[in-house]
Amino acid sequence: MNADGSEYRDLHKDLLPYSDVLSHLKMIEKNDDMHSYCQGANESGRWFFQFLNKEFVRDLATLINRAVSGINESGPVLEVMSGDGRLTEFLRSILSRQIVATDAQDGRHNIAYPKWVVKMDAAEAVERLRPEFIVVSWEPLYSTTIVELVRLGRPIAWIGDPGSCATHSGILDMPHTRMNSQYALGRHDKFGASEFRTDVYVFNCDEEWFQS
Fold it and tell me: How many angstroms separate the CA atoms of 8 and 55, rounded?
């Protein structure tokens, strides 16, 4: 909550520029409110793990579009463990393929799921929908699901902070390419000190997808 008693803005109500998002996060951090903000103390009561912004979504969409451009199959892009599906919403208008958001909706977090977020766990979603590209943002700490999905050979973008997501499973010991995104912002980053641990790691990828 702001010093004047008003609620902090919902950074995912609209897709904002990186500079605006970072500035707001610095203010929240300065007020020592980051934990409560990320767990619903904002104007929409939204839970946050990754803080999205225009530049981050644009670069992720570019990578996905390059990955699927040479695939003749018609499978969708699939976001698993999508939470409220906001990343899918922001990607939808700039992807060359349909994108579907799924989540197990197991009640672990107090998340308001839109009706269009399909209630389905990640393994079932991949088996049923046969996607050409998979996106997961902030896989739960004790999950091993994405390790299993990487072994299927489909391209996967794994978004998160290696110290706070499912890295204990050995996910980053598997062959991957790090995006080194200058726009990735996660809840455990230090915004004022410019200490950023969050990034995008891509599995089963082609190096050409990262060419500017």
Answer: 22
Predicted local distance difference test score (pLDDT) of residue 212: 64
pTM above 0.85, yes or no: yes
- Which sequence spans correspond to the domains of the chain? 54-210
- CB 132, CB 95: distance < 8 Å: no
How far is Cα 191 from Cα 198, in angstroms, rounded to an integer? 11
Per-residue pLDDT reduced to its tens digit, 96-121: 999 999 999 986 767 888 999 999 99
CATH classification number, 54-210, choose in 1.10.260.40, 3.10.20.310, 3.40.50.150, 1.10.1660.10: 3.40.50.150
SS3 for the chain, per residue? CCCCCCCCCCCCCCCCCHHHHHHHHHHHHHCCCHHHHHECCCCCCCECCECCCHHHHHHHHHHHHHHHHCCCCCCCEEEECCCCCHHHHHHHCCCCCCEEEEECCCCCCCCCCCCCCEECCHHHHHHHHCCCEEEEECCCCCCCHHHHHHCCCCCEEEEECCCCCHHHHCHHHCCEEECCCCCCCECCCECCCCECCCEEEEECCCHHHHCC
At residue 4, does pLDDT exceed 70?
no
Locate 108 and state its tokens. Answer: 């672990």
